[in-house]
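Q: Joint fold for the lines below.
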Amino acid sequence: AQTVTQSQPEMSVQEAETVTLSCTYDTSENNYYLFWYKQPPSRQMILVIRQEAYKQQNATENRFSVNFQKAAKSFSLKISDSQLGDTAMYFCAFIFFGNEKLTFGTGTRLTIIP
Amino acid sequence: DSGVTQTPKHLITATGQRVTLRCSPRSGDLSVYWYQQSLDQGLQFLIQYYNGEERAKGNILERFSAQQFPDLHSELNLSSLELGDSALYFCASSVEAGENTEAFFGQGTRLTVV
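A: Joint structure:
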């Protein structure tokens, strides 16, 4: 079975600082996708970034980037120049080809302090 | 706006009752997923439909059922409701079932059972 683990239930950081959220996963599959979703207080689920497992290059979306370590099964999210609007729950998620469900971690509650 | 529409946004009902949650996927998306998120919890996968057929099943209670109609909208039926069924129910859609490169989420239906 595939599992996704987020070991940091809560984090806080000063505005404009950089923060890294951790995620590890367990799978025997080779082809899969990894995602980070953001859930602000509005409860909307927003895709932040995704990574294809077959790509060695780490994905980047503006201030958001990932550190994908396939051998270590690690997929961390780095937020640079953090902003107040980044305050949210962040979920790491995983899906592999042939499976039909997006498996989520338990989430990290991130608070950006003014 | 993700393009996925869920109705209603809020629902309050009594124990023992039955409710129907509705989801309209993004235009062109054949796959619909249902997730349950209890308070301060992660997302639990319930069920997935692809082009009208059930494709995958998660931890969905027997009191719950779903279907996807020819126009691709989906409904999640919850019956004999219990207090513990109070949660946020998300619908997500994507283009492909097997190669789910991205799932777009609706805004959720908040169900309160009293």
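Q: Anything notable?
A: Chain B has a mean pLDDT of 91. Residues 68 and 74 of chain B are 4 Å apart (CA to CA).
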